[in-house]
Specification:
Blueprint lengths: L2 E8 L7 E10 L2 E9 L8 H7 L3 H4 L5 H12 L3 E4 L3 H12 L8 E4 H8 L10 H7 L9 H19 L3 H7 L29 E5 L6 H10 L3 E3 L8 E4 L14 H11 L5 E4 H9 L1
């Protein structure tokens, strides 16, 4: 059970805007190393992101930029198994490497959320967020601190290995198999039924703003990776994908009503991830 686990925090909805990276190293299933750094994302901070993780411009003023950290991170992680909880951290690392024209870190990536869905049946469709699973496993951590989240994701993998009796290499195989081993067919093309074996199965996604492709096309992409597509932000919403905001149509606001409602719900404790269209499509293409 030798692997690294990683988590990042971002300054805004663009997942290349990394402002903190945390890495935990596990050997034989035991935590043996910790690495964490604030990052100057060279971009603006959204108030909502600051409310979530408490990192803002003042905190990163003297922090290194990602181009100063890439070489160290690449050397540390290359060729290793790297655990992350949900696709977003992996996407963020890819997007920030693209931003600086650096090569993407060459590693075997393992999504602990997808493993959770396969090991514990009660989480196969919902409730597989990092905080909820950590509570279930009695893992004590400070959520939305990159290092703490990385450690929690690593401990989840160790617990999943113990529960399933699968080693880390076997988990890499299991994650590519159906959640239900008896399930043999993917969602039909040309409809928006969520693919039960998609990497985001169980997520409820809403789109807002002007997108680069027709809504039916991106809705099909969402269904292919497991999402249930809805028109409105509700208590079931888990992902909001934002396109270009036409301020002439926003009645004096800078964000759409869906975006504002999602942020209000997040402030009240809802677990909603806000993504740019580019980041969402990157999950599909990955």
């Amino acid at each position: 059970m030798d692997f690294f686990s990683i988590d990042v925090e971002t300054a805004n909805a663009d997942y290349s805007s990394i402002c903190q990276i945390g890495i935990a190293e596990f050997k034989d299933g035991e935590l043996v190393g910790k690495w964490v750094s604030l990052v100057n994302p060279e971009t603006h901070f959204d108030d909502m992101n600051y409310e979530i993780h408490g990192i803002g411009p003042d905190e990163v003023e003297d922090a290194p930029k990602f181009n100063e950290l890439h070489s160290e991170l690449y050397d540390k992680l290359k060729g290793s198994i790297v655990v992350h909880h949900m696709p977003f951290d992996r996407v963020a690392m890819k997007r920030v490497c693209d931003k600086y024209n650096f090569k993407t870190i060459d590693a075997k990536w393992l999504d602990s959320a997808r493993i959770v869905k396969r090991v514990w049946s009660q989480f196969s469709k919902k409730g597989y967020g990092l905080k909820n699973v950590s509570n279930f496993l009695n893992i004590d951590f400070k959520h939305h601190d990159a290092l703490e989240d990385a450690i929690a994701a690593g401990k989840i993998i160790v617990a999943a290995s113990n529960e399933s009796t699968l080693n880390i290499d076997e988990l890499l195989v299991r994650v590519e198999q159906p959640v239900d081993p008896n399930y043999s067919s993917y969602a039909k093309s040309l409809n928006f039924e969520p693919n039960e074996n998609g990497k985001l199965f169980g997520e409820h996604v809403v789109f807002t703003g002007e997108l680069s492709m027709p809504r039916k096309d991106i809705a099909q992409i969402a269904a292919n990776i497991g999402c249930t597509v809805k028109d409105s932000v509700t208590k079931k919403t888990t992902i909001l994908v934002i396109g270009i905001q036409d301020e002439s149509k926003l009645n004096g606001y800078t964000k759409s009503s869906k975006h504002r409602k999602a942020e209000e719900m997040i402030s009240n404790g809802a677990n909603i991830t806000i993504l740019s269209e580019q980041d969402f499509v990157s999950i599909y293409e990955d």
